[in-house]
Amino acid sequence: MNSKIKIFIITLSFLITSQFCFTQISDSLFRQSCLNEDLIILKKDMEVDIVGPKLALMYVRISNTSTILIKTKKGLDELNPIKLPRKLDNQYIYHASTVRNIDWAYEDIEIRYFNASNVHNTKELNVSTQIVAKRVLNLDGFFGEIYEYEYTVENLKVGDTISISYSYDVPFNLNWIYFLSNRIFFHEKYPIKDYQLRWCYNKNLEIDSIFANQNKPKVITNENNLCYTWHLKNLPGCLDEAGSRPYKSLPYFVFLPQSYDLEYTHLNSFKMEFIPTYFFESWAVQSKLYDEYWNTLIGNRSKDNLAYKHIAEKYISMFPNDSIGLTRMRYFQSFMVDSVSYDPAINYYSNNENHLVQRAGVDLSTGVVKDHNIERVYGNIIPGLGLDFFTAYPVDSRVGEISPQYTSTVKDNDLIIGVALNNKTMGFVIPKSDKNSYYFEELPFYYEGIPVLLLHYTDFPNQLEKRNFNTNFRTINTPNSGWKDNYRKVQSKVNVSLKNNELDFQTRVMLSGQYSTLTRNVYNNLPVDSTINSKYFDPVWNISNDVSLNETNTEHPQVFYPFKTTITLKYDSKNIIETKDNIFNINVGSWFKPIFYESISNETRFLDYYPDFVGSDNYSYLLEFNKPIKLLDEIDDIKILNQYANLSFSIRQMSDNKLLMTYSYSILARKVEKENINNVKEINRILSYIENLKIKVSLAEK
Residue range 485-501: average pLDDT? Predict the structure, then answer.
């Protein structure tokens, strides 16, 4: 096919797909949305009963009956095994160090029943059960063990319609902290034809609820219970749409129970109120910081405090005129990132050492930080630098936003520390761990431009100072990066030997802003963020199976925004060129590393699209052949500009033995409304075309 026709087809084919977005959609659109799905949930009835008003005697009964059509082998594989218990919030993205990043489940549940049957076949289905022990961090902060139940329904095949029903009880007193902030989305990854939810609780239980995005229920009073009920139809399976933020537009329900066990009386008063849930969820962290505050205040001269003092004084003496504190924080965090080794503290979490005797300051002076002491290190050093700080609790912007009712990430998620600089501004730092190697004021895109909950040690009550809880929900927004600061620039000189079918690359990669934050670890052989698009982790030399990486030189990143760094590389490959009848085919598409979501190109879109960040990605390859050549296929220039992005690509023959390939991809919009998703599809289809591009050359005639 002529390349000009190819481009024409790619750029216009997006017009055949229409986009709609409704909570409940028409039967015809629902059927259309189901065409490429692996599973379809024909009917789902779910009931959650919270029994009792007192914490010690409360329990939660979760029951569910679903009728599911299995459409593909992938759907069959996803259905089995069925794991119980299940999280109520299926949108949660968890960020923490590896040792803490253990997916929790409710403790000590009681399975009441589990049944499976084939709707269209009376033949009985066999169900095998396996009880799996999972290691978790318990509420005391040490490794513990809970049990997960895995049910495998045998004799299933593609095309079957299966009915699955189960019920289990969760004791509230053992799992109370996981029920303090519950969020329920009605939509799922797969489409639901008919959905009913019944949520009941004792009417004497004080609760706080949010009914987001026009999803108010019917309210029914039944004896001692109050029940919310929803009945929805034709819910598309859009909860996993790439680049979406479902909480922005999809209906969901937040339920915050306030047991009377969680009330407290104000000092010197008869006033009573419920303790905000985030104080319970943050207590493990805040108590460590409170200890460090008092150690510093009373001038404790322990080995730890003397070690902390020595380190802090080092940065004060290095920058005596830093009245703001910004430079001291930059270079202290650079020390943490570049020079301090992270210890996962397995012995501590296994409770094999005396947890009352810890030497965080002494460890730090030897260049080590243990996982359970990370907060202590920052809680002591920052005041030692003459600065105050807040703990700043975030929610990943892709899945939610922190609020007085929604605080589920406070307990286990990585925290950010908000450092109160002396010019009345705040700088943010993510503490060092095995997954976090960020400099001061460096945040990955999902923590940019978001509200964070700020807590201070003085927010907690103190009998000596006669303080009550400071119940003001204090938030501040983190900064956003800009288009001009987020870029990747790749410049490469390629020597091409047609005789040996060999290519030698001399390449320079310049990273700035989010491209530095997200991708530089690939070139330093350091851990990468598993929650983001895997295309970020495709290094520039990954162009074929036989690449030899001969030389790598990585500059130290700037320790201040936008954290620019440059990597120079030399590598070669001998199997990119295919030769046939004196025609040389070169797979050049693999040299470009565009970051996009391929699934968007073919799906019916129901949610708005949010690019990770605005910025530009630019490549330039100069190919110098050892003999004069002729470019056989004339490849038309690509130039596309729409409200979403600006994309250009060209191949030029510069002389008898030189070709120049240039590529530029700039994301311009922070949000693309679902009605305009074709702008994204248009760009993505061209990016996919470029990824698979090959060029043909022949030796020039003499």
Answer: 93
